[in-house]
Amino acid sequence: MTDASLDRINRFRAEAASRDLPSQEAEEWIRVARPAVYLAEGGNGPLVARIGGDPLLPYGAPGPSDPLVATVDLAALPPGATGLPLPANGHLLLFSGTDVSGIGGQVSDAVLYVPAGTPTTRSPLAHSWREPYRPRELRTVWHQPSAQMPESFALGRWGEFPEDEQFELADELGDAWAHVGGYRPSWALQIGGHAVSPQNDRVHHARGPEGADHCEQGGTAHGEGADDWVLLATWRCGDDVTELDSGVAHWVIRRRDVAGRRFDRAHRYVEMA
Question: How would you classify the pairing of strands 111-114 and 91-95?
Answer without folding.
Answer: antiparallel
